[in-house]
# Entry
Amino acid sequence: EVHLVQSGAEVKKPGTTVKISCRVSGYTFTDNDVHWVQQAPGKGLEWVGLVDPADGETIYTEKFQGRVTITADTSTDTAYMELSNLRSEDTAVYFCATEDSDKNDFDYWGQGTLITVSS
Amino acid sequence: SYVLTQPPSVSVAPGKTARITCGGNNIGRLGVHWYQQKPGQAPVVVINHDNNRPSGIPERFSGSNSGNTATLTISRVEAGDEADYYCQVWDSTSDHRVFGGGTKVTVL
# Structure
């Protein structure tokens, strides 16, 4: 059975950096891309970017380009999302999700990690 | 960048049919996925590739996609279907994934 387990909630000050994790199990980590999705309070889902654990290739949406870094550690089957120069509008729940290689849908999701940015 | 447009809300009586639209330029040429999200939970895919139901999803959920509009249809709506629903596509031009703004389904 596939599981994605994310790290716990974070409270950060503006201008600082946060790094959250997503540990996967139940499938071969390098077989599927891992994506990150933002959901601000009371708002919809917004795609942040992805990492291909097989080769480390990443793609980011323009909104987060330059401030986000997504990585994958194949020794621990864990994906990471680092967000720098935090702003109050980064306050949100961040989900990791795997993308099915055939259907290209997000078939498994983590439980979400709340990042709160506040002075 | 590619934009998907959904109505903010849809209300439906129990036992009736709910239809949620997702508009996008030539969306009929793309594979559309639909997710259900209940408060405090992660999204769950209910339809992938326009009209395919993953294992465990009731037959009451169906999808269609043509032209500039994709549609999620929920037949014989139940109270437990009350949730936010999001459409999503892969924009091959940019290699980005795109979500619609979401539709809140209220069961009257």
Notes: The mean pLDDT of chain A is 96.
